[in-house]
Amino acid sequence: GEDVEQSLFLSVREGDSSVINCTYTDSSSTYLYWYKQEPGAGLQLLTYIFSNMDMKQDQRLTVLLNKKDKHLSLRIADTQTGDSAIYFCAEFNQGGKLIFGQGTELSVKP
Amino acid sequence: NAGVTQTPKFQVLKTGQSMTLQCAQDMNHEYMSWYRQDPGMGLRLIHYSVGAGITDQGEVPNGYNVSRSTTEDFPLRLLSAAPSQTSVYFCASSYGTGNEKLFFGSGTQLSVL
Lengths: 110, 113
Description:
The complex is a heterodimer of chains A (110) and B (113). Chain A is an all-beta fold and 110 residues long. Chain A contains no helices and 11 strands. Chain B is an all-beta fold and 113 residues long. In chain B, the strands form 2 sheets. In chain B, strands 2, 4, 5, 6, 9, 10 and 11 form a 7-stranded mixed β-sheet that branches. A 4-stranded antiparallel β-sheet of chain B has the order 1-3-8-7, with no helix packed on it. The model of chain B has no long low-confidence stretch (mean pLDDT 93).
């Protein structure tokens, strides 16, 4: 079946790196995404990775994909208080649907 | 550009009442969808549409109806509200039906008493 799993909470100190992990079950997924949700708002696309890539870097964000283990991670370097939000992993599968994980609430302490 | 506009932002219903959540986008997107967000469960797809006149069911369609008479609008109807439908509802759209970036509305917080 289709399932995307994330841990629910992560707490880091300002300036540290944050790593948010995600596992998925559909090995035929073509694209994998990270969305960010700030309080009281909808989701915004942060970054995405195509399934034939291992890594993608975009400024402070690094996405790592381990296709063998069906594991996706998002690393935020030099985490700031403005990065506090809920982060959702999502996979676009060959059924043509976008399946979201439960979301990881990132708390950044000064 | 307004993007994806949802109304209302908040709504309280009594069990058994019906209502329509409105969603409109001004980006000429073909694909529109409705999700509900519940604590610890992420976003679950209710219904989606790949173009005007075409709708299909997502993961949790029961208790909800949709229609897509125009490209711009995709209303979600609750026929007889139940407490289990208390949730935050998000409308989202994208240009195509593939891997395109989804644009989300700001959400409707619905409470059913």
